[in-house]
Amino acid sequence: MSAALLTLLTALAQLVALALFGLLLFQQLFYAALLGTALFALVRRPPQRATRGLWSELVDVAPSLTIIVPAHDEEATIVDSVRALLALQYPRFEVVVVDDGSRDGTLARLKEAFALEPIAGPLPQRLVRAPVRQVFESRTLTRLTVITKANGGKSDALNAGLELATGELVCSVDADSLLESDSLLRAVEPFVRDETTLAVGGTVRVANGCRVEAGRVVRAELPRRWLPRLQAMEYIRAFVMARLAFAHFGALTIVSGAFGLFRRDVLLTLGGYRHDTVGEDFELVVRIHRYARERGRTYAVHFVPEPVCWTQAPERWRDLARQRIRWHRGALETFFAHADMLARPRRYGAPALLGLGTLLLIDVVGPAVELLGWLLLPLFWSLGGAWLELALAWVALAAGGGIALSCGALVLEELELARVPRARDLLRLALAGVVENLGYRQFINLCRIIGHLQWLRGATGWGRITRRRFDRPTPAETPP
Amino acid sequence: MPLVAAAPLLRFMWTATLLLVLMALVVVLVLVLRRMVEELRAERQARDRKAVHQYLMRAALGQDRGPPPTALARLDRAEIAELVSELASVVRGEMRRRLAAAATALGVLEHELARSRSRRAALRARSARRLPLFATVAAGRVGAALARLLEDPVPEVRVAAATAAVEVDAALRTRACERARHDPAFARRLALRFWERLGELEPATLAELARDDDPERLRLILEAAGRGRLLALAREAVAALDHPYLPLRLAAVGALVEMDHPRGLAALEQLVEAADPALRLAALTLMRQEPRPAFTPLAVARLDDPDPRVAFRARELLVRLDPERARELGVVPREQAA
Fold this sequence. Notes:
Chain A has helices at 3-44, 51-58, 78-86, 106-114, 153-164, 183-193, 226-248, 264-269, 280-294, 317-337, 345-383, 386-417, 423-457; strands at 65-71, 93-100, 116-119, 132-138, 144-149, 169-173, 178-179, 197-206, 211-213, 216-219, 259-263, 300-311. By secondary structure, chain A is of the alpha/beta class. Chain A has 2 domains: 19-42 and 351-457; 54-347, Spore Coat Polysaccharide Biosynthesis Protein SpsA, Chain A, CATH 3.90.550. Chain B contains 20 helices and no strands.
């Protein structure tokens, strides 16, 4: 090989390495910009009100609301969850539980606990694919309806609930999620203040380790196990930093399926949730943006950091991998279903450019770039000289930048929301923010790449994640 | 070579990033320390709040309050204002007047007046909601502040000021009504409480405002009239039954039903028999919101509706209204009922 060719190849290799580094740098700078925006948005919002004050302000004007709870094999928690939902502080709401073909005793538990009475005759199912078997009304509670249907997936269950919902707003809640008692009041505020609001998302936090009684978090605690604790830190960064910043720019494209509020009429106009994706929550919000922009309608999708929904994070690496692979597949399905929005930024504006653009650069390209960088690191290191500088810069930016961002999100959380239970928990979370960048983040990127490959293969299905009852601590969480 | 050229920049970047990480960790540590101090102070703060709460309560009851507790000096005005607001929502009449006097002496009125000029709209709106408490001790200043807030550029603040103004005196009420007559903010759901309070205090004025052309405003007024069972507005509700705007027609039916007006049930019967299934569905949804025995025949009439959504709602309503009749009519499957 001639010297000239070798020089050319080396220069080319260096350019490729620098391009990879440039992408990482862009990603970290983008996150830093999100952090700054979130700080700006948090500082500008009015101070939080006590629940009583909020109730007296909203009790007359809060729109009616239907909570839809899709449930699949949830016999362990369903009764407590429904009781807790029925006890939420909100003036006018109903709960529709959709038993999506459970094979365990979910329906039996509900029948027993709430004296359910079946309703005969044909049932409306315009939006539903899997047959609805029966609808039940509670003899004791006028605000509870239970639907039982053949298994058709989460979207189908949500659509079944949507079909029978009567509230002006619908709120989707996972059966294994726990809402704080004033979360509906806080989440509904944007709908009252701004009538153009079509959807609102709230904060989701990790419930592992919390003390739960009768379907309610009575004492917030950090998870004792490291894996859920790392996710707790990750959730803080995602919700306090990213979603708040995206909402500030009118580009919020994700309202978590665990807790989101929507205008029912808009959902019905859009034909409900789509059946052909595992990222139905993400896809729905992108479709809402699309629908409103195509009609030139003034609208808003808000994020409110105060209403908190607690969810169980996977406690095993295998479960976490399944969850993240599915999330990534859902994101890709949504992205490619609406990729044309990126080509018309004038029409689709911030949701396309920021929402879908970020997804492309950070979620589609990002994981591969970052993982490739880590894989090539030993090679860079061994080459020495300028390559060593590149290796050091890579480690500093990828891991150090991640730590700085996690700390930044924690600072935001503490100064503006202060929901971390105690000082020592703040320290533990900061430590999790450090540890997270040294293995966990790379693992998540690997899951995303697997998700990508699965999506290319056309994989479908949700995969099963082991969950346990909230109020039954695992041995590691049992206090000594 | 491009990498050699970039090497100084790369060196700068990794050293700067490491410094940034160090700084971030230090900031977190400072916050941890701050939180530790707060945790130590939390107990005392709770005691302070309790002492001030008791002091204010004694003041409201007209009991000898003794010298102001030292806790007052340790709590900031915003916290005291919050406590006053909490108490104000549960006291009435003379107790309310005494609470206002005590709060004014503690500087809460000044605090609220300052907030009414805040740059944050939410704080101005909150101040507007709290100011009526002080109308008995500083009517002029409260009136002036509310009059200014009635002209605020933010709709939420104007509505909050008008709702508060209704409580204060007749002159301010008239001013608020003038604002409400023309301001589009008062056609939004946010203003429902304003219309409700106005209806409670001056039903005749509300009836006069209900002769408005704006169907959205009229819809809200009728909803407020229904909630307050204000028969003074029955004529306006009956007139709205023929309005081409469907939500207004439904609001009129709802209001008449809530007022127990005979035309309410008749209008519901008409809706339930309408050719358009959307109207029949709307009627059944309306009945479902507050089921009454009088609705039973209407539900029975729609059990076999050709539209499955309407038929379902009718069956559902019947199960709620009269489970026995539902069983007799086979709305509850026989084997399940047995």
